[in-house]
Amino acid sequence: MFTDYDDPGQAKLHLNAVSHDKYASLLHLNHQPHYDKVLEMLAGDKYCIYWNVNKQPEKLAQRIERSYSDHIKRYVQKNTDWRISGDQTLRTDFDVTFGELFLILKFNSRKLRVKFEDIERI
């Protein structure tokens, strides 16, 4: 499983979280031996490669809003004390951490980070 990071600190946090995995490592593609290893992994049949990437975050945000707005409303009603009237707005954003999708719910000055799977179940 490949996860790419713009922030080296986040990459190190992820590596620490999976430190029990003997195959876990940080690869720097501008370092030639690492780049060559990735090419080797992609070229052969020794490895099965997975890559968690979202090429169009705007479309994902629209899809979440369109397909899961009722789930989000039910989650907020059941799990928070937020009372959102018709003229108020619940804002959503998303984040991927360690390969897992999280929704960030924002209402007034409040903010809640929720695993997407918890939203899906409601």
Provide structural commentary:
The protein is an alpha+beta fold and 122 residues long. The chain is built from 4 helices and 3 strands; from the N terminus they run αααβββα. It has a 3-stranded antiparallel β-sheet. The radius of gyration is 19 Å and the shape is elongated. The chain starts with 7 loop residues before the first helix and ends with a helix. The model has no long low-confidence stretch (mean pLDDT 90).
Question: Which strand order spans the largest sheet, edge to edge or round the barrel?
Answer: 1-2-3
Helix tally equals: 4
Average of the residue pLDDT scores? 90
Note the main sheet: 3 strands, antiparallel
Strand-pairing-aware structural class:
alpha+beta
Unreliable residue stretches: none
Name the helix and strand elements from N-terminus to C-terminus, one letter apiece. Answer: HHHEEEH
* Helical content band: 40-55%
Quaternary organization: single chain
Record field, number of beta strands: 3
Approximate shape: elongated
Rg over C-alpha atoms, rounded to the nearest angstrom: 19 Å
Report the β-strand fraction as a percent range: 15-25%
How far do the termini sit from each other? 29 Å
Can you tag this structure with a few keywords?
3 strands; 122 residues; alpha+beta; elongated; three-stranded antiparallel sheet; 4 helices
